[in-house]
Structures are given as C-alpha cells and as structure tokens.
Design brief:
heterodimer, A: mainly alpha, two-stranded antiparallel ribbon, globular, B: 318 residues, mainly alpha
C-alpha cells in the first residue's frame, strides 16, 4: 500500500473516531473547542498531503482495504483529479473548522451538530478517494446522511423538518440514479471496480443512459435545475458553517462524481452529450441567479447563487465534453481547467459569504434582509470581507471569480472551430446566458450587500450588533485573501491543474507562470490575455494618484449633514429601498417567463381610508411542472392502494390466488 | 530605448484620455446647444466645473460609511485604467496585453458595482431607486456587449483590441451585414452604459426619470468631481472603442515612430469629433423613453448581436 494513500485513509478514520468521541462527550462544555480543533488539525494534515501530491505529481497510487463486501475489499485510489478535489474538500474543512471554533460557541444544541460534523467531512473525503462503485456509493450515502443530520440539527423548527424531508427524498432519488449508472457501467460481467469500468467501453445507448443518470444523480446533489428544489431549503437550514460546507464543498464532491464517471470511466464522449450538459448548465445558471435575486433571506439567497455557479461549472464541463468529442484537446483542456478553477473559486467565496451570513446571524439573530441594514457601522471587519466575497462572486476583476469566468468565455470563443452545427449555434447562446447570469449575479450581490450592510438599520437588533469573535474573523479574512490571491495569480492555479487535465482530456493548458509579468495567455498573446496582477496594481496606483492629487490640491473641508429627502426631514428607515423593491425592475423584466409573476394593485374606492396594496404573485415553475405532478401521482396511488389494508380475509385469499394464477401464466407463456 | 519610448507612449495615452474627456463632453454639450439654437456654455466649461467642485467642501450624509468615501476613487481608477487600455491613437501599446475587451467591459462592471453600492449607502429612496434601475439596465447591456465581443472575435480571431483593430483595418474584412448589426448593437449598448438619451438623461434632476443621477445624488465636492470625471472617461472609452473597431483608419502600431503617431492622433481627434456630433444630433432628435421601455431597447441590441453572430456562421459556411 502506498504511504500517501495510507495517510489519506487514516484521515477519514481519525475523523470518524472524532465523531464517535464527540457523540460520547458532546455535552461537555469544552467539546466544541475539542471537536473543531481536532477536525482542524486532521483536515490540515490531509490538505498538506493532497496538495503535495498535486504539486509533486508522482502519478497514481491505490490501496485495497479488507472492508465492505466479503472477498472483494474496498478499493481506494489517488490520482490528479482526486488530489485536486481532496485539496478543495480539506481546504474547506480546515477553514470551516477554524470558523467553527468561534461560531460553534453560539450553537444552542451542540450535541446535534458535533458528532455529525467530522462524519460529514470523513464522508466527503472517502467519496473522492473511492475506486469502486460499492465504496463510492457507501461513502456518498454516508456523506448525504451526515449532512441530513446536520440539516435536522434544529429539528424543532417546522421549516428545518420540511427541508430535511425533501432533502432525504431527493438524496435517495439521486443515489438510485447513481446506482443504475454504475450498474450500466459494470456491464453484464458485474465488474464493480473503477479500473475494470475504465477499460470496458459501453455501447452508445448505455453511454447515453449513463450520462443522463449521472446528470440526475450527481446533478441532484449539485443542484442542477430542475433537481435543485431541495438545495435552497436544506443548505440554509443547517448551522452557517455547515451551510458553507454543503454549498461550497459538498456540491463540488457531486461535481467530482460527475467528472469521474463522464470524463474518466465512460471513455470517449459523443458530441451531443456536450450539448445536453451545456444547455442544462446555461439554464441552471440563469434560473439560479434569478431566484437568488427574488430572495430576501440572506442564506437562501446564497444557496440559490450556488445553483448559478454550479450551472457555470456544468456549462464549462459541457464545453469540455464537446471539444473532447471532436478531438480538440487543447480547447477541451481550456474549458476543463476553467471549470475546475471555478470549482476552487466558488468554494472560496461561497464559504466566505456563508461565514459572513453566519456572522450576521450570530450578531443580530436575523437572516431576513428586510430587518437588517447599516451593519457596515456595527461589523466593520465582517462587512469588509463580505464585500470582497460579493465582488469575487460577481465576477469582477481583479478578483478570482472573474479569472475563471474569463477562462470560460475564452473557451466559448473557440467554439467556431467545432464542426457540428448544433454546437456552433448553441455555444454562443449559452455564452449569452452565462454573461446574463454574471450580470445578474452582480445585481444580486449589490442587493445582498447593499440591503444587509448599507443604508440605515431596519430593526433594533441591528443597533445592538457587535463584531463577532476572532476565530470567525480569522477564517473569513483567510478566505478573502485567497479570493484576491487566486484572482491576481491565476497562472499559479492553472499550472497546478495541469496534472488533473492531462490524463482526462489528453492535453494541458500552456504553462502560465513562465509568461512575462505573470499574465495568463490561454492560446496566444495576440488572441487574448489577462493580467490580474497588473490590473490590480494599475487600479491601486490610479486610485492612490487620484487620492494624492485630491489631498494635495483640492479642498479638505468636510461637513456632515442630513441626507437629501426632497425637503421631507427624518424619513423612517422603512422608507429605504428594501430587498423586494430593489429586485422589482428585474422582476418586471424577467419575472414573466421565469416565475410567471403577476402584479395586482388593490385600489380602495375613492374616499376610502384603507391603503392601496400591491400584491405580487410568483410561481416556482420547476416545482409546479416537475414536482407537483409526481407528488400528486404518488398521493393518488397511495390513496388507491390504501384500501388494500382493510380487506376481509376472503379478499386477501382471492388476491393471493389471482397473483399465483398470473405468475403461473407468465411462466407458462414465457418463451 | 525602445522600451522607454513605448512606456512614454503608454503614459501619453493615459494622460490623453484623462485630459481629453472633459473636452469631449464640452463639445457634445456645445453641439447640442447649437442644434437647439442656444449659445451653449464654453467648450472648457467641464474643466471649470471640475476645478470648482474640487474647491468646494464635501457635505456628507450623517450615516455615510467609509465605503461612500472610498468609492469615488475606485470608480475613477477602474474607469481610467479601462479607458487607457482601449487603443486611441495607436495600437499595441506596452501594456495593451494586460486586458482584452472582456476585461475592459468587466472593469466598467466593477466601477458600476461600487457606484450602485454607494447609492445604497446613505439609505435614501433615491439611491436605491438609481441602483436598482442601474443594475437592471446593466443586466441586459452586459450580455449584449459579450455577444458583440463574440462576433468580433469570430471575425478577427481575437478579443485583444489591438489585434481586432489591425484586422478591421486590413482589406480582408470587406462589408458584412453582421458587422453592421454589431455596430448598431454596440452603439445601443454604449448609449445605455453612458446614461444618454433615450435611456437616461444626463441633464435631468427630475426624480422619476433619472437613473445615474439618482445614485450620485448624495455626492458633493471633490467626490462628485471624481465621479463626474469617471463619467466623462466612460463616454470617451466607448467612443474610442467604436472608433478603433469600426473606424480603424490611421491607427498604427506604437513602435511605428512619431510621424505615424501624429497621423494617428489627428485621425483620432477627427473620429471623436464626428462621433460627438452624431451623438448630439441623435440626442436632440429623440425623446427619452420610459424606464420599462429600456429592456425592449436593450433586448433589441441583444438580439441584433446574436443575429450578427449567427449570420456570420451562415455566411462563413456558404
């Protein structure tokens, strides 16, 4: 057994041991500190191991443990892809544990969180390492169940219970799809090891079915539209640091599952598979961010924005599939690198934003943006790092979100070289959708930051808010620094991803760190280039020059006065723009087809004294088209079958007899 | 030596855009005034306005935060950097590879992001109104802009503006329908981005109609000067962009020597003058539209850009 893999397997074992200890000792006062301290240390060790494997590039290593099914054992394997996702998982785990050291102190029922948190981390680590269908599915289910327990931490809350129920149903559905996909991959021989699946190439029909099942299975965990319904319910219901793990990291583990099967095990893709993934990605991105814009609960807004980012990643993966199917390896490497880079970036800024939302929650006790406002005065550090997260997720230069979206657009611009007409027409349209979702994301996070942190306080809770503890602040500051660093040094990330892309798409992006001034040049300098570092330096210099000039030559006088209110003094804070009113223009533009929204005005009769009321009616279209018919059919069927419980003995005997007759008939008629 | 020359040219471009942009605004205002038979303020009035604003005290709302005070500098810096990266009188400047067209558009997006936040900082209805309308307009203008970039990149094989300009100046371009569509779409986006009539009125202070002015209503003194200068720079940026992509005559590489640069500078001034006159005539001829007509206007730009791209595919395969 390879020593790196052994070390990486000891990590989850240690995490599981921590979980058991935590279950035993969770009522102790020091338990919170001990558990998060232990997960912090274990995750940091795992992170260092995985990162050194990724940087050192010593190839693959595998191990078989005598666990699981008898005589077969559980296989584990470490390659570039697993190493990269281990870095994502454990970086998230490390920083979340750091945050948990402070935030966990506010938990009213620590015994419902502490045992499951290390188990959740262990599950995610094991999914990424698994090398056969059995251990993959087992770890996947373990991860789902641990996160379900965390969603149900506050199970006395009706909303949490509903979220947990829907999450459980959707997770079972997803696992069923995965089970069928692995069944198809295993073929008639029933080879359930990934190594055997890699060499066996399924026929075209089976390959198509596997792709669809993976989109259902991994897509439901990642939150692809229309399988996203559980995500905005479940992610915000968990404690904030677990929300960060679920949104920032667990969705990435789902993406890992998709990449592992579709890029690695399935062999050469067909070009139309790229079309399917691209379209779903584009639609997911736009609908996700539109839902986020309509939201006034801060954590639900973040969860919907996760759906948008998943859409961007899937669109980029679809592009990589299309390029790979046509043998354009360098373009496929570009699109694939862009997707992985966005995976890393999203894990940074989404964790940061959920931490920020957690800080707001612990400082004010509010998640509803309509009751917040003006927090920039009360929480200076939190508001600053939250702002950095907002700028990064809105894909604005020079932060990291822009670097990866720029790479996605560069990959889209290579689509004219594709031979198929379908792809030629669809890719620019998806490019337009991604641009639309990026612009809407900027709008959404102007709203999120503007309503929560700016303006005047909308409730008394805000006026009592105090800055959060140092552990939480440290975790957020570290993530904000990562957002900036990955934005101004994208070449470093791109080069570290070369060991991941090379085996999966057969090519890597050109070496970026050797470029002059550390710019990134995906194809050729005359074609396109971007230098985040120089953009950052130029903006800093220009802003400093302007500030210096103003300081030197312009007036210094400053007077505080009341804000201009058209001559009406002392407008109440409720007169400010709210989250709903901020989104109103966009709702009027896009709401018609995205939500079938309708606005009606109740105008009182002339002379009547009651106020006029505006009513807005919005529909979750995906819920109504896909879920309600299914739940309706299930209800209908159970209603009918329910009668079978109350039959007399004669009727039961008749049923048994009829069943026997049918069975014998089938056997007799079977050719 | 060559490096120093190229750095000097780059520096000159930064200064040119900074110093020329108020003059451009002054020129547009002058032409507009003349078109309605007014005398109009002097050409250098925008400079005077800036100097006067710099000398005045700042009146800050009681609950304005640090973000409100930092934002003018950020907006100015992002816009200035973006404007300095668009080729004006020469292509292929020392730092032109720092950013391609997508980055330049995104830099303006950064400026707008902070402007909208600053609008919401004080907590008056005006700021929120301006910010929410501004992001609505941007959410349609940005995809249209990206599709324009896409069809340009399809033709020129690059998003690097210097390469695009060189390609558009070469004889192999010819006359294309999709280029015409892209030009119209780009002009529409430029009008929306610069808050000009018919999308927004830069001269109004009537609350119900304004977008950009509503966001900056609370600004005064030196802060307002910075924001105004950034607005001027943005107009110059879009005019330079249209000039360098669709009117690339007289543009030459930065290393071509002083004579070619002088020709480029003269050509650039002529192009700006022509575009400014066209803008003034257009603004005088049309009326401002209602806010909720703007999505139709920008939707048309989006569709034109998409059609241009698709037409390119069709014409290429024939």
């Amino acid at each position: 057994m390879n020593s790196t893999v052994a070390l990486l397997l000891c990590g989850p074992a240690a995490l599981l041991a921590t979980a058991i200890l935590a279950a035993a000792a969770s009522r102790l006062a020091a338990a919170t500190r001990l558990v998060y301290g232990a997960t912090l240390a274990i995750s940091a060790v795992l992170l260092a191991t995985a990162a050194s494997h990724l940087a050192g590039n010593p190839g693959e290593a595998s191990a078989t443990l005598p666990l699981g099914l008898p005589w077969t054992g559980a296989r584990f394997r470490l390659d570039g892809l697993s190493a990269f996702f281990l870095v994502v998982v454990n970086l998230g785990g490390t920083i979340t544990s750091l945050y948990g050291l402070g935030y966990g102190q506010h938990e009213s029922q620590p015994h419902r969180v502490l045992p499951f948190y290390p188990a959740f981390l262990a599950g995610m680590n094991l999914v990424v390492l698994a090398n056969d269908a059995f251990s993959f599915l087992l770890s996947w289910e373990f991860m789902s169940l641990a996160s379900w327990a965390l969603v149900m931490a506050h199970h006395r809350d009706e909303a949490s219970r509903r979220a947990g129920y829907i999450y459980l149903v959707m997770a079972s559905f997803g696992t069923m799809a995965l089970l069928l996909a692995f069944g198809l991959l295993a073929g008639p021989a029933g080879t359930y090891a990934f190594d055997a699946m890699r060499t066996a190439h399924p026929d075209r029909f089976a390959a198509g079915a596997v792709l669809v099942l993976m989109l259902l299975g991994a897509g439901s965990k990642a939150g692809l539209v229309p399988l996203h319904a559980w995500l905005p319910l479940a992610h915000p219901a968990a404690p904030s640091h677990v929300s960060a793990l679920m949104s920032g990291i667990m969705t990435k583990v789902a993406i890992y599952g998709f990449i592992r099967v579709v890029f690695d095990l399935l062999g050469e893709p067909a070009w139309w598979s790229g079309v399917a993934v691209l379209l779903i990605g584009g639609v997911t991105a736009v609908l996700g961010i539109l839902h986020a814009l309509m939201e006034k609960d801060l954590k639900r807004l973040l969860a919907y924005s996760t759906i948008e980012n998943i859409g961007v990643i899937f669109a980029s993966l679809g592009l990589a599939l299309a390029f790979k199917a046509n043998g354009m390896a360098s373009a496929a490497a570009l699109a694939f690198t862009a997707a992985l880079f966005h995976v890393l970036n999203h894990s940074f800024f989404k964790s940061l934003l959920f931490f920020g939302a957690g800080a707001v929650l612990s400082a004010t006790g509010e998640r509803d943006m309509e009751k917040l406002g003006g927090l920039i005065h009360r929480l200076p550090v939190t508001s600053f790092v939250f702002l950095i997260g907002c700028v990064s997720i809105s894909a604005l230069p020079p932060f990291n979100g822009f670097a990866s979206e720029w790479l996605v657009f560069q990959a889209i611009l290579r689509s004219p070289e594709l031979p198929q007409w379908g792809l030629k027409v669809i890719v620019p349209a998806v490019g337009g959708m991604l641009a639309l979702s990026a612009a809407l994301a900027a709008a959404c996070f102007v709203k999120a930051f503007g309503i929560t942190f700016l303006g005047r306080a909308r409730s008394a809770a805000v006026e009592r808010a105090r800055e959060v503890d140092r552990w939480s602040l440290a975790a957020m500051v570290v993530l904000a620094a990562f957002c900036l660093l990955a934005g101004i040094l994208p070449g470093f990330v791109i080069d570290s991803l070369s060991t991941v892309t090379l085996p999966l798409v057969g090519e890597r992006m050109p070496v970026q760190m050797a470029q002059p001034w550390l710019s990134i040049v995906p194809i050729a300098e005359s074609r396109s280039s971007y230098n985040g570092l120089l953009v950052f330096v130029f903006i800093t210099i220009s802003a400093s020059l302007a500030a210096f000039f103003i300081h030197r030559f312009a007036s210094h006088a400053l007077r505080r006065g009341i804000a201009w209110g058209c001559g009406f003094p002392d407008a109440v804070p409720a007169a400010q723009y709210s989250a709903v009113s901020f989104a109103q223009p966009i709702r009027r533009v896009f709401g018609g087809f995205a939500f079938r929204s309708r606005e009606t005005v109740d105008m009182p009769a002339p002379g009547a004294l009651e106020p006029a009321r505006v009513k807005v009616e919005m529909h979750d279209v995906a819920w109504e088209i896909f879920y309600q018919p299914i739940t309706g059919a299930i209800d209908f069927a159970t209603e009918r079958l329910n009668h079978l419980q109350f039959l007399t003995i004669r009727r039961y005997l008749t049923l048994v007899f009829l069943y026997l007759v049918i069975l014998l008939l089938v056997l007799a008629l079977w050719p | 030596m060559a490096v120093i020359f190229e750095l000097a040219v780059q520096g000159a471009q930064m200064l040119v855009v900074l110093l020329l942009s108020p003059l451009l605004i002054g020129f547009v205002r002058k032409v507009k005034a003349r078109l309605v038979r007014r005398q109009g303020p002097s050409l250098i009035q925008p400079y005077r306005d800036l100097v006067r604003l710099m000398r005045k005290e700042v009146v800050l709302a009681d609950n304005a935060s640090w973000l409100f005070r930092v934002t003018p500098y950020l907006i100015f810096a992002a816009t200035w950097v973006a404007a300095a990266l668009v080729p004006t009188f020469a292509t292929g400047l020392e730092f032109s590879w720092t950013a391609d067209l997508i980055v330049i558009v995104a830099l303006l997006g950064s400026a707008r992001f902070f402007q909208a936040l600053a609008g919401m900082d004080v907590g008056t209805s005006f700021g929120g109104l301006g910010a929410s309308r501004e992001v609505m307009i941007a959410s349609l203008a940005e995809p249209a802009m990206l599709l324009i970039v896409f069809s340009l990149a399809l033709l020129a094989g690059a998003t690097q503006l210097s390469t695009v300009a060189a390609f558009m100046g070469s004889p192999e371009v010819g006359l294309r329908v999709s280029l015409g569509m892209s030009l119209i779409a780009l002009v529409m986006v430029a009008i929306a981005e610069n808050a000009r009539i018919p999308v927004d009125n830069p001269a109004t202070h009537l609350e119900l109609t304004m977008v950009h002015e509503a966001m900056i209503l609370e600004y005064s003194g030196r802060h307002l000067a910075m924001i105004e200068l950034a607005t001027f720079l943005k107009l110059l940026l879009y005019m330079s962009l249209i000039a360098c992509v669709f009117l690339p005559w007289g543009l030459d590489g930065a290393s071509a020597g002083p004579k070619a640069l002088a020709v480029g500078a003269a050509a650039y001034l002529c192009k700006l003058a022509v575009l400014a006159i066209l803008l003034a005539v257009f603004e005088t001829a049309v009326a401002k539209m209602r806010v909720f007509r703007v999505p139709d206007f920008l939707g048309a730009a989006l569709m034109l850009a998409l059609l241009g791209t698709l037409l390119l595919f069709v014409s290429r395969s024939l």
